[in-house]
Specification:
Oligomer: heterodimer
Number of strands of chain B: 0
Radius of gyration of chain B: 19 Å
Strand content of chain A: under 5%
Largest sheet of chain B: none
Keywords (chain B): Membrane, Transmembrane, Transmembrane helix
Helix content of chain B: 40-55%
Order of helices and strands of chain A: HH
Distance between the termini of chain A: 53 Å
Order of helices and strands of chain B: HHHHH
Number of domains of chain A: 1
Largest sheet of chain A: none
Number of helices of chain B: 5
Shape of chain B: elongated
Structural class of chain B: mainly alpha
Largest interface: A-B, 19 and 22 residues
Number of helices of chain A: 2
Number of domains of chain B: 1
Amino acid sequence: MSRKFTIKAAVVAALVALIAGAMLATGSGEPAAHALGAVR
Amino acid sequence: MTAVDAVAPGAAATRGPVPRWADWAAQATMWCALPSGIWRILFALGLPAGFTGSQDPANGPWFTLPYVIALTALSETLAFLSLGLVRPWGEVWPRWVPVLRGRRIRPLAAIVPAALGSVALICLWTPLAFGFSDGDPEMPHGAKAAILYACYLPLVAWGPLLAAVTVAYAVRRRRHG
């Protein structure tokens, strides 16, 4: 496996972890929807 | 910068030198499409994206996940095709393509779809530069909207980058055949 490919794969994995972490860390999003009256 | 610095390393196999900036721009198109694709797949897998009510994927049809994966694969494939504008396989059909292998690709066969694609991408994604509409209460808000926006914002650059790479390809094919 080339070094370039390894670096690119690591960047993709880091992006996945970052986005998934951000989605999980910010909760379900339900409170905002409740506050706006969208969820009963 | 010397003339050598301005040419991409893999350009030797192409007809005429590929400017380094064009090579970088072509590679950048793939990275522009990636964060939104990752976000979409994570969203379809059930990670909390902030959609509620009728927008919640849990309330959606069974094919949401395959649809989202197919959409992401399609957008990454289209982004990958822009690499052909700076690689030899954008000039001569590669060996693994049946019937057409080894034949020369006419410049307009690449330039016209790439130019139309860049116009479509600019029309589609430039409005994102002016912000997301968050009027729908079932759409993500607050931090969830910020994550969605951060993932989709790179798409704004996709169209202009593709347009620039297309111009570089057209100029190079005109000069070097």
